[in-house]
Amino acid sequence: MDTFSLTQSLLTEKTPEEALDYLEQIATNNVESLGFSIKKQHLPSDTAGRCLIASWGKGKNHLIYVAHLATLKSEEEQLDSKASLSTFLSSFQAVMKKIDANNARLSLLLTFGKCKISPEHIKPIIDGLFVDDSRPTACLIGEPTRDRRLGETVTIGRRGSLNAHLVVHGRKGHVAYPFIADNPIPRLLRTLIMLQYTPLDNGAPYFQPSRIEITSIDVNNPALSTIPEQATARFNIRFNSLHTAESLAQAINLISTEYAGLHEITFDCPYESYLTTPCPYIEMLSQAVESVTHSEPHLSTVGTYSYGQFFVEHCPTAEFGISLSVVSLFEDSSALRDALNRTESIYLNFMENFFRVASSTE
Fold it and tell me: How many Å apart are CA 238 and CA 338, to the nearest integer?
């Protein structure tokens, strides 16, 4: 299996709808060629995506590799987990010749679509992988990183995400008669300033400080001489392990009550923070990275929505994939080949050690 050729075959100029079938077929063909048994997981008809589960071997110590293959068309999105999957499959082709399928087991969870499968649909599938004795003992997600160089980080968690929509109410009126109106804009701005500049924390182990980002302010008022009836804002908080969505909502409600006056606020939490505490599995992956890059990777929790939040409930979980800095190499095939080969070497080193340790414990 040639990593560069497989990566090229996964990069497609097809429409998202055409790419869905195409990517699933290419992945299925290459996975089957390595001797995996494949099960295509049913998803609700209103889910714009696909899910494939594959398994090789019968060992009790069991690694699961996870990747999402996006159908979007920009170079950065094209090179996301596709390159990581190509390098992983190629490295496993080399590893499988050295290990006994009775003493090792590898599963794959591959999803396809414009976006990752939503939590309410993917979580039951992931939970279903852990219902019997064949449950995975460790999870590796081939998520690309935004590092400046390959292997700069290994991701071991995520900050949580909390969205808020704040509506401050006033009384509409003309600017010439402000005494019979109630302008909600100053109260909204005071509230946002307090939220923005009240430190939430100074960070937590492996996490950056929690942070509020205001993403929208709107009064929907084209008239220059009219005081609006209401003013709204939307903001997001990326929060570390010192908080939960519920505790942050309580704190925001207290500030809003003090400064916003008559208002209403709604919250939506796509996911809480999570962390795999460094352990021998994380150390093994970090050592594999260092063996190729000659630099110890930083353990990070930076990133957006990840399937890792559902695996970490069951087993140690980490993310490592090709750096998106390779996007700049897109037109340089020799440089891209080098980046793919080095990523493949990292996966190869990791799996040789993982399955060697796994075999010795059975």
Answer: 35
Percent of the chain, pLDDT > 70? 93
The closest alpha carbon to 160, from 123, 122, 212, belongs to 212
What are the tens digits of pLDDT across the range 50-83? 999 999 999 888 999 999 988 765 555 556 678 8
* Token digits of residue 252: 């925001």
pLDDT at 360: 46
What's the whole-number mean pLDDT along residues 305-323? 93
Q: Tell me: the pLDDT tens digits for 208-257?
A: 999 999 999 999 999 999 999 999 999 999 999 999 999 999 999 999 99
